[in-house]
Amino acid sequence: MTSSTETPLSGLWKPTHLQRLHYGSSSVNTHLLSCLPSPTSKAFIITNSSLATKSPLISQVESLLGQAHHAGTFSSTKQHAPVAQLDEATDAVGKDSAIDTLISIGGGSPIDSAKAISYRLHEKSGKFLFHIAIPTTLSAAECTFNAGYTREDGVKTGCADPELAPHVIIYDSKFALETPQTLWLSTGIRALDHAVELLYHPMATEVPAKQMVLSAIAGLFTYLPKSKEEPKNEDYITRLQLASFSSLFPIGTNVKGGLGLSHTLGYALGSPYSIPHGITSCLTLASVVRLKAENPEDAAQVARALPFLGQLRGDNDKEDAMKVADSIQGLVKQLGLESNLKRYEVGEGEAPKIAKMATKAKEGPLYDSVLSLVKNLY
């Protein structure tokens, strides 16, 4: 893996195999069939029970595919993608060798589940499945080639391969209209988490990564409050979907390890304590940015976001990075997403365990800093 450097300015960007990105109202109805890899493709839908039973979306896609292309639907994926449901879905897809396409509809769990299913079936058959992602949240799982799921003991794990990245992404604002507002807005903060942590990621390139995530930060700060006030405004929805894409897609495939501390804390808090990842980002991101501001190199990168929040850069990167952290905290409050670990019944005695899981350490300066950070989340 090649790291990016500022001095001298150098890096390597390796894109995923994404073939198409469609966006706009009714884009699923307009473009889905043309996105199938062949005229005889058989597609299996991966989604969740809420979309399948409380909205017309899944039945609409099934009708659009028709008997010629619809091979089945699995609608039992759950938050954090528990392995039990993943096993069921893999078995259901694996029964029909004619299936060449997965269509994931929903947030991170259905999209990651589709990737994991393809990975598992590849281990048996040597072939990956074509993947069309239709996101209904802003979590941006469609932008990566890794898939997270939860083991039976509650620990988040996963798989990764460049072949797992979706081949097609369709951002349809009408599909996002069905998403509950708290989920929509909180996953918007998740996208902001991606964008901010890519600024100081050692493998994030200047172009396209950092330039795109800066535009994503501007878009998220601009349109999340607007979307809160006008949740049915499809132009705002589409602009946020594109900001979500820009927050994570440009990392490409030249990546190693996690995105950053806010994300590792999110994994330590998410599936073990049943906290949605959008909410974990609301809890951790501002605090992590304040911690990063203590490091001159990280502070310099975070400070770059300040003009994209409508504020002027000063001559002190640490102070500017702190202003970015304050702005993030202010946005979370403005969206009505403030929370704490007590609300999710996480006992204060869990703090050392969370810090250990996030840092992979039992002691040391980083562990101490993260432990203090976690204690302040109560």
Architecture overview:
This protein has helices at residues 27-35, 49-54, 57-69, 83-94, 108-125, 173-176, 181-199, 206-229, 234-248, 261-273, 277-292, 296-303, 317-334, 351-359, 365-375; strands at residues 20-23, 42-48, 70-77, 99-106, 130-135, 146-150, 156-160, 168-171. The chain is an alpha/beta fold and 378 residues long. Strands 1-8-5-4-2-3 form a six-stranded parallel sheet, sandwiched between helices. It has a two-stranded antiparallel sheet with strand order 6-7. The longest helix is centred in the middle third of the chain and has 24 residues, at 206-229. The protein is globular and about 60 Å long.
Task: Give a short synopsis of this structure.
With 378 residues, this protein is α/β, with parallel strands linked by helices. It has 15 helices and 8 strands.
Question: What's the arrangement of secondary structure elements?
Answer:
Blueprint: E1 20-23, H1 27-35, E2 42-48, H2 49-54, H3 57-69, E3 70-77, H4 83-94, E4 99-106, H5 108-125, E5 130-135, E6 146-150, E7 156-160, E8 168-171, H6 173-176, H7 181-199, H8 206-229, H9 234-248, H10 261-273, H11 277-292, H12 296-303, H13 317-334, H14 351-359, H15 365-375
Parallel strand pairs: 1-8, 2-3, 2-4, 4-5, 5-8
Antiparallel strand pairs: 6-7
Helix pairs in contact: 4-5, 7-8, 7-9, 7-11, 8-9, 10-11, 10-14, 11-13, 12-13, 14-15
